[in-house]
Fold these 3 entries.
Entry 1:
Amino acid sequence: MAGAKLKMWALPGAELTVPKSLLMPGGGDELVKGPCPSFLIEHPKGLVLFDTGCNPKIIDDPIGYWGEFARHLPVKWSKNETLDKQIQGIGYKTSDVKYVVLSHSHLDHAGGLTYFPKAKFIVGSNELRYAYWPDPDRRWAFILDDYLPTRNCEWIEFANDFDLFGDGLVQFLLTPGHTPGECSLLVNLPNRSFLLVGDTVGMVEMGFDSTRQVTMEHMQYHIGAVRRGAPNTHIIGDMPYNSDCDPDLALQNAQLLIDAGADSVKLEGPKCEVINRLVTNGIEVVGHTGLTPQTAANFKQVGRDEKDAERIVDEALRIATAGAFMIVLEHIPDALAETVTRSVPVPTIGIGAGSSCDGQVLVINDAIGMGDRWPPFSRQYAYVGKTIIEAAEIYVSQVRDRTY
Ligand SMILES: [Zn+2]
């Protein structure tokens, strides 16, 4: 059952810079940035918070709160981004939160527990005991002050998987390993629909032989038209060829598409610096890899040999890391699309990439059978082109017969 009434917000918390060796065995000294997010889930029976990030005291005094170890964990976080402020930003108060599910009790997850003295806390069994008495070599990662003030709060320990509301929408899964009582939440969010105003419009509506001739003005015109027809649907606008070749130009052009009516923009290829610039300036980005028509020599399937397949997986990962919230995979083998879908942390949308993608997109002109030539992967659910010609022929003959 899809959770028609469920909503979820990802709340970014502090950003920690850590050596890779801390995250994986043999990771080395290379420094990586890691987020410490929380997730707020709105269920008809109550608000659920998954994880609470770091304690805000580390903004001013990380060594005072975390101890000497904090010297090795540089923090980037502002007082405007603390968990209570983010929950307020959505329109709730911290006291509205009914359940706090704690994935585990490390310092980057349990730091905000004290915001919710009235909530029920849910953890995997043995987690609390371990948080108070961890193995000595791990003790630095557990801060007693994170959970000591909640000692008299209501804590529930689950020793098995548990369906939180009995409707399959939010499921507690016991996933021990990182700590003895570590858990995960499986959240069954509703499906979403998007409209993509693609630069394919140049070929299927405007008579060009490639998408490269499509200009910003063309895209603004078409996005505006779609917005007027679909005032409440998320519209993704395609960045035309060369409109996104450097971060400054891309930001300027993406803003023009947003002003024309788009909610987000899509751009082709692993232009990670561009994606990052747009996202950090508040513009949501959809990535696109596999066949990328703006630069492709032909429209044949790509990713067939091992090297090309590796390139596509790598590009998809880089696009997601740069901040895209979704990735279009075009005309690649089904098995490769499945690999990419499993590898990236964001939804994949397939066009000629098989049914294992998280979602699908088709050019509407192809799907309804406009014109007389369609990509091999596109199904025709009607032959509207034929219907138009038949109607026009009847009209012309009636005019000639003077019966109209
Ligand atoms: Zn941890």
Entry 2:
Amino acid sequence: MSLPVFPGPTPAFAPAIGAVPATLPPGARVLAFDGAFVVVRDAPAALPDEALPITTPHLIGTLDGALVVAGALQGEVPEGHRAMDLRGLASALPAAHWAAAAYAAQVLHWDRTNRFCGACGRPTVPAADPAKRAKVCEGCGHEVYPRVSPCTITAIHDGALTARSELSGVNFDAEAIDLVRFQQAYQASSRVVQVARETFQSILEIR
Ligand SMILES: [Zn+2]
């Protein structure tokens, strides 16, 4: 069985942390966000080539060697463009482009939701060191980094492909077998989650 293919970071998209250059180099890509929605060219959906006006730019990385920055869209969504949910774009964009947009969405979410200190309530400012993606409280020095959320994914790669290609003629035996396989895969991943929970619990209880 081959490894599942997810539109995650690929060699074509390399995330990076650092200062946004005052003048963007030629070919740089600017990703503009309207809340959690990314602004794309419409029909067919594609990342914009032109530099849309943004506020609070963040360095995201490089895409096919070109610098990528992202920020909140300034003004209205321009003609011929659309603000779209990342889920809807997963199959519409090349994997590396989607990975860049998804990474940018996480960075902007962290930026948007950590304007004030969770400890003392005072405003936060970007960390002085541009190599550190952190927000620092001006009052108490509390630092906030983008969140890393662990997740468990069950890949039913072969089964999903089979189901997709069987557009005509449903084989009930095959469906029943698939159902059992999916159920087992689900139970196996539930067990992984349970073991992980028990492990963390044991670690926490070590004194
Ligand atoms: Zn504080």
Entry 3:
Amino acid sequence: MVYSYSQLVLEHFREPRNVGEMKDANAKATAGSMACGDMMTFYLKIENGIVTNATFESYGCAANIATGSMVTELIKGKPLEEVKNLTWQEVVKSLGGLPKVKHHCSNLAIDTLMKAISEYEKTGLTEVETSDGKAAGREKTSQVIEG
Ligand code: FES
């Protein structure tokens, strides 16, 4: 089947940004799409409440690769609380649109991202204290999450 993709979708598909495993990620999740059976993984590095790095691996279609790429671009350097509000519609809009039949591919990207954040938060955050005893920010204490 042939789909009509925006120029930006094609750019992110052909040259995806931030692809691959992140060795020092402190949040990770893999999720699959019920609609098509494809899967993807997000890796996040979260420091002091900021998503300082984000990468992904996609085992999905062109639309999923493009949305994964765009998601990493949209969230890098952003506060975690802001990232938690990102929607698939915003990602699709940032890509100049997607065919309706491909919306589930962007849902997979957002669902995987939110799963990684949820796992990160479930395992507990602690306040990092500076030498003067004041909280410097939130830091995760556990290792990379599988699943
Ligand atoms: S068709 Fe499966 S992620 Fe796009």
